[in-house]
UniProtKB/TrEMBL annotation:
Keywords: Membrane, Transmembrane, Transmembrane helix. The keyword Repeat does not apply. The chain crosses the membrane at residues 15-35, 47-73, 85-107, 119-136, 156-177, 211-232. The keyword Acetylation does not apply. It comes from the Eukaryota. This is Transmembrane protein.
Length: 319
């Protein structure tokens, strides 16, 4: 499709259909690549409501992209209102379940601190409310009689985006604070000592995935804000958020999968830690059964702090 070709949906850039099709292709590819791992999570582990959240995050994002792509490239013959209701419902499910997967990590770590869990549950509920408000207050019309156009009041976009940015950022900071405290206690208050490798094994595992999620959450929401309010045309904002939403979903699924199956993080581990062999033992076996090998001594560098956090993650009623 050339840059000067007409768009199927008025007010959208010509590349909208290509961007959405690419996002859909990436999601389908990721689903197929991890079919075996997802099968293990669903059928070989205890099925809980957290497993249901994982499946909801996976399939609601896929359904959302299917409907929004059809909505964008459709040239007629379909009900605009029905398509809009469908993809908005999937949008609310996809974004809130993605955030909830990260919230599960916070609840697992802070399961012995009820007030912290209450604060983050309230923030997640606010995120859900903001997304539902956008979905309910949106308007769908077909000015040309052949294609659909969606409109959402700008005054509703900014609060919903702000709540999402705040929730994602604070949840990730909470995880980093709790796990980074191990390094702080072990190495004193010198910043140079804290940043010097090797980090504790458990901290290594969590810092990798959650840092990537935090950066993606922040950058994607900032990109949407710029596209909506500062960009050359407001219509760009209608497309800018989709790649970021897909990336956040894939990372959150990766985090849950890593914690459930004991896979290493996204980034290469430090040479001092054998993540591929030890991480699975930490998250899938009682703390007392972890062998005292040279690699596990990092976890026990501060016995009380390390054992407490590992035990929280393994035996917590929230995991």
């Amino acid at each position: 499709m050339s840059d000067d070709s007409p768009t199927d949906v008025p007010l959208l850039p010509p590349s909208a259909g290509q961007i959405l099709s690419g996002c859909l292709a990436v999601t389908i590819w990721d689903t197929l690549c991890y079919l075996r791992a997802d099968f293990q999570i669903v059928f070989l582990h205890k099925f809980t409501w957290r497993t249901l959240v994982f499946l909801m995050a996976r399939h609601s994002t896929l359904g959302y992209l299917i409907f929004v792509t059809i909505f964008t490239v459709s040239t007629g013959g379909m009900s605009c209102n029905a398509l809009q209701i469908s993809f908005r419902a999937f949008l609310v499910l996809a974004r809130t379940s993605t955030t909830l997967l990260i919230l599960l990590r916070v609840i697992a770590i802070y399961h012995d601190t009820p007030w912290v869990k209450s604060i983050f549950l309230a923030m997640w509920a606010a995120t859900l409310g903001g997304l539902m408000l956008l979905a309910i207050r949106g308007i769908t019309f077909a000015p040309s009689g052949l294609s659909c156009t969606s409109y959402v009041d700008e005054q509703l976009i900014a609060p919903a985006m702000f709540i999402e940015i705040l929730t994602d950022t604070i949840m990730c900071l909470a995880i980093l604070y709790k796990l980074g405290g191990m390094t702080w206690k072990e190495r004193g208050k010198s910043l140079r000592k804290i940043l010097r490798p090797p980090h504790p094994l458990l901290t290594d595992i969590f810092l990798q995935d959650t840092l990537i999620y935090a950066w993606l959450a922040l950058l994607s929401n900032v990109a949407i804000f710029i596209a909506c309010f500062v960009g050359p045309t407001e219509s760009v904002g209608a497309v800018a958020g989709h790649p970021g939403a897909v990336a956040l979903n894939l990372i959150s699924l990766r985090i849950y999968r890593n914690m459930k199956l004991g896979a290493p993080g996204l980034l290469p581990p430090s040479p001092q830690s054998d993540l591929s062999n030890l991480s699975g033992m930490i998250f899938n076996a009682p703390v007392s059964t972890i062998p005292a090998t040279s690699t596990s001594t990092q976890v026990q560098a501060n016995p009380e702090a390390s054992q407490r956090i590992v035990k929280d993650m393994v035996t917590s009623p929230e995991t």
